[in-house]
Amino acid sequence: MSGEQPVTSPLPDKHSLMASVDRCFRRYKRSTTRREKAVELMWSHVMKLMASWLAEYNATRLIRREVTRRGETDHILLGLWKIRHTTSGETHTYRLDLASGRWRRDRNLDRWPELKLLPVTAEGGLAFTWESLIGDAFDEVFRQASKALRLPTSAYDYLHGELVIRWDRRDLSKACSILANDQSLEQQILSDVRYPMEVDGCVTCHTDWNDRRATAVDVGSREEWQPRGAEHCHECAENEKRKADYERTVMQRLATVKAQFGDLRALNLGEGRSYAQLKTLGGYRVKALMTALWHDALDRPAVSLASRIEGTRACLYLREVLRVQANIDAVERIASERPQWLPMLSRIHPRHWERSDLFSRKLWVRQGGSAAPVDRRSLRCDRRLCSLERPASFRFLNDSSQVCVAMILLGWAKLTEHFGSAHGHIDKWIIFLQALAPSTDRRPAARMLAIRAGLILMQHCLARCDASLALDKLKQPAVMRLGRAWVAERLTVWRDQGYRELMRSKAKGEASLQQASDWCLSHDCRYPDHNMNWTAIERHSHTWHEHVQAEARRRREDQQRDGLGDGALSQDLTWSSPIDAIQTDRFVATPLTDSEALRIEGDVMHHCVSVYDENCHHGGYLVFSIVPTAADAEKADRATLGVYLGAGGFQLNQLYSYCNTHVSSAARAFAEHVIAALNQSLVERAA
């Protein structure tokens, strides 16, 4: 069975649909009403088409195995994506075109589900859920349905954009709520709309009862307290109004969701099961899906090569493994001839992996003013690759190890996030790395230490300085001397105490480099000088940190002596945070939004977080105070979190406990939760 049957549900006529939209425009005169009614009309047609396709192709079935007449094995995911193993041992990937009902070859795999294979969580659980897979299937069906009904005239393109925005803003956070045949939809809406708990009691009536109780002479004559009601109390009337508003909001949102997704719920794809039953059954199906993928669909050599491309510690998704598996001969050739370039394959489109000149200099280095072939959009999977301007930069990449190339790519991506295009910037970045790398030590680990130092310094400059000045800061001789001194110190540890001690003290050494970076950047890159080794640099850095803390305490004492109390000084800076305090069962994170709060945090934690007030004031940096709430909390659970804002959202810059010591794993996991909440707030604001 090939599964290439024609679609049985005919598509609506676009000309009649466009005529209906035109009639809607002629009927309503206000522009906002026209837009709303036209979007409602288009939405109803898209939902009906989605319902017919979901019912026809059964997109809720996670995986099924079929054997064709030629003896080829097909693994079909959610009825929309197919992995085919041919009789010759090759792997082909397909995506179902719902409009024609035929399978189309899909080599890029960008629209496949976000199915993470590795790493497995500590508890042995899966990194994805049945709800997320159903959500991916619904997103793909909606994308194809909206594309099939897109009106041919460019004047109506904004209607398609409005449909996409409405789908992204749908009230359901879990797609399987559409499939459930119980009250899960209502419960989801009730959890989204917060009930105003404060309206259940009237402060005015309670105060009146306390007054009457206090003035009563005879204890037996005290009357039981009763609310006076909305007709006698203004606050009770306001509470009744707020309750009515809450109920009205819930009913309106429920009616809206039912109107938007009524066609999909009428399919009864959940077969009458409740939400709890669907979730339990979906957990078993997800485990069966993983078993089928690992036993039948995935090849172990392809998984190993994909792990080398993405990084041994990076998350490995199904699409990355399938890309390698579909081009296994080309990847194996590159792994044997040029293994150091394997991480570059994650940025290059798979259609170019078979090129024999894929990593030749003429492909990557500009010749005069003309652009290199790598600048073409067809060569890249994203916009993070660009040509090099110096042959020396290409030679540095070609002579580096596989791990070093992966680390250079990480810095490449950070530069692209800040500058949009890395043309010219990547050569400055590689020149800086060449200056840090020891010229006499050719060992890969020595170059890896230099690249790691460059990453730390670049990230620190991007957080402390303006993005346009960050690379200029890196070019300063003092910053280069700082990086070279740190690399020399780490190589000395390796030589005298061994590689095990070098790796054991890795985190401590990187923390000392970050602290020294604060001192170096605070003096306009005048220090360290040529005569300072790493011991002297640490001594000067420690003295400077103590001076910053003493200055903060002195300002606080002057403030109290002048009678200003707890108020902030007139020259203090203020800023805002996109989110308020975040609290879980173990931690609470509070944003610090003024200079005084940073000084207090620095006094408590004994570090120099107060020097970041100008960066926070200009909007490129945020600081959070993480305090444990559990009774059995450790000292390392108390931490200060610093994040900087890049083009890709908020990213971790620093996370330290008392005296810049390391935090616990629980505090680090909570910090990642805070960063995710910050990025989610950016997405909601953009929407």
Notes on the protein architecture:
It is a single chain. The chain has 687 residues and is an alpha+beta fold. Among the domains are: 14-181 and 268-295, no CATH class; 582-686, no CATH class. The chain has 24 helices and twelve strands. The protein has helices at 14-27, 31-57, 130-148, 157-168, 184-192, 203-215, 234-265, 275-297, 300-310, 318-326, 328-337, 361-364, 391-399, 402-419, 425-436, 444-464, 467-474, 477-497, 499-504, 506-521, 534-561, 595-605, 613-617, 665-686; strands at residues 63-67, 73-77, 81-85, 91-97, 102-105, 116-118, 316-317, 582-583, 587-591, 621-628, 639-646, 649-656. The protein has a five-stranded antiparallel beta sheet with strand order 1-2-3-4-5, covered by helices on one side. Strands 8-9-10-11-12 form a five-stranded antiparallel beta sheet, with helices on both faces. Strands 6-7 form a two-stranded antiparallel sheet. Strand 8 and strand 9 (587-591) form a beta hairpin. It is globular, with a radius of gyration of 31 Å. Residues 1-8, 217-222 and 565-570 have low confidence and may be disordered.
Characteristics:
single chain; 687 residues; alpha+beta; five-stranded antiparallel sheet; 24 helices; 9% strand; disordered N terminus
Number of strands: 12
Main sheet: strand order: 1-2-3-4-5
β content, as a range? 5-15%
Q: What is the alpha-carbon Rg in Å? A: 31 Å
Instruction: Indicate the percent of residues in helices.
Output: 40-55%
Largest sheet: 5 strands, antiparallel
Poorly predicted parts: 1-8, 217-222, 565-570
Individual helix count: 24
Structural class: alpha+beta
First-last Cα distance: 44 Å
Shape: globular
Mean pLDDT over the residues: 83
